[in-house]
Amino acid sequence: MADIARVGVVGCGQMGAGIAEVCARSGLEVMVAETTGEALEIGRTRLHNSLSKAAERGKITEEERDETLGRLSFTTDLGEFADRDLVIEAVVENEQVKTEIFQVLDQVVTRPDAILASNTSSIPLVKLAVATSRPDQVIGIHFFNPAPVQKLVELIPALTTSDETVKRAEAVVEGVLGKHAIRAQDRSGFVVNALLIPYLLSAIRMFESGIASREDIDNGMELGCAHPMGPLKLADLIGLDTVASVADSMYTEYKEPLYAAPPLLQRMVDAGRLGRKTGSGFYPYA
Ligand SMILES: C[C@H](O)CC(=O)SCCNC(=O)CCNC(=O)[C@H](O)C(C)(C)COP(=O)(O)OP(=O)(O)OC[C@H]1O[C@@H](n2cnc3c(N)ncnc32)[C@H](O)[C@@H]1OP(=O)(O)O
């Protein structure tokens, strides 16, 4: 049985905002934290726009949109997470940044049975777990982009995570959020990224070596294999910085060439061409 009513989401970028939206639309009371007032405003606008779009497209009524907005609150002070039953961290894929956040959460979240979760794509959960005094209550809850649309959530117990935490996390993910949960061991990439990232890197290598144009690579997979979007468009959607970080974590873990980021990917990250979120990636975005 899900016993979780108050959720905290750390980070309101594209994943954090999506996760906050999914939780609030499912009736949970959600507090979102960002580091600065400016970042918080951007996140708040992102959430408002997404909910307004959902109302315009008739997915939710205007009343449901307003009720959902009423369940969302915003802060720049993680100290306000004291009463949270579940916290989902969704900040950049940087081990040091995430570790520090888990140390702070451990200090501020006072509920003894609170679950501290990370939306990490590839960082070992056990490292975040042992940064806290409650490693049995730390788990990976990994959503997919766009979180309000994709049905899947990966649940990743660390070596230290208790069965009770896994069961409670599964109950909220499936019973409250209505997602389909799959379980994976705490190995970089889990299930989906372990399969997806080598595919995206192969597409980037193919583009870099001039074998085909970006449009032909994407059309190949969209029209030949019925993928909803081709690999270069998908990399732009995920964010090239995220694709590179996940690839680097997997390469560090396995030392397999198929996880090595091609030079073009790193150059695009260095240039700040991160995909849709910066207006430019493999494609331009207005
Ligand atoms: C790297 C990480 O660790 C892991 C990951 O996240 S891996 C990435 C996983 N994601 C994918 O593979 C995405 C693949 N692409 C897709 O599923 C689809 O192309 C897409 C949903 C992004 C867009 O779909 P598409 O049909 O081209 O566009 P569109 O018609 O605008 O959207 C389809 C539906 O999704 C909704 N949607 C699209 N983007 C949305 C968003 N950001 N938020 C909420 N809803 C959204 C639309 O409202 C629409 O809903 P409707 O059909 O009920 O009206």
**Over all CA atoms, what is the radius of gyration?**
19 Å
The rounded distance between the terminal residues' Cα atoms is 45 Å
**Poorly predicted sequence stretches spanning 5 or more consecutive residues:** none
Q: Give the fraction of residues assigned to helices.
A: 40-55%
The helix tally amounts to: 11
What percentage of the residues does DSSP assign to strands (E)? 5-15%
What is the tally of beta strands?
8
Overall outline: globular
Order of helices and strands: EHEHHEEHEHEEHEHHHHH
The mean pLDDT is 96
Give the structural class.
Answer: alpha/beta
Largest sheet: 8 strands, mixed
Strand order of the largest sheet: 3-2-1-4-5-6-7-8
Hetero groups in this structure are: 3-hydroxybutanoyl-coenzyme A
Sum this structure up briefly.
The chain is 47% helix and 13% strand.
What does this entry look like structurally?
Helix content is 47%, strand content 13%. The protein is α/β, with parallel strands linked by helices and 286 residues long. It has an 8-stranded mixed sheet with strand order 3-2-1-4-5-6-7-8, sandwiched between helices. Helix 1 (14-25) crosses helix 2, helix 2 packs antiparallel against helix 3 and helix 7 (192-208) crosses helix 10. The longest helix has 20 residues, at 37-56. The termini are far apart. The model has no long low-confidence stretch (mean pLDDT 96).
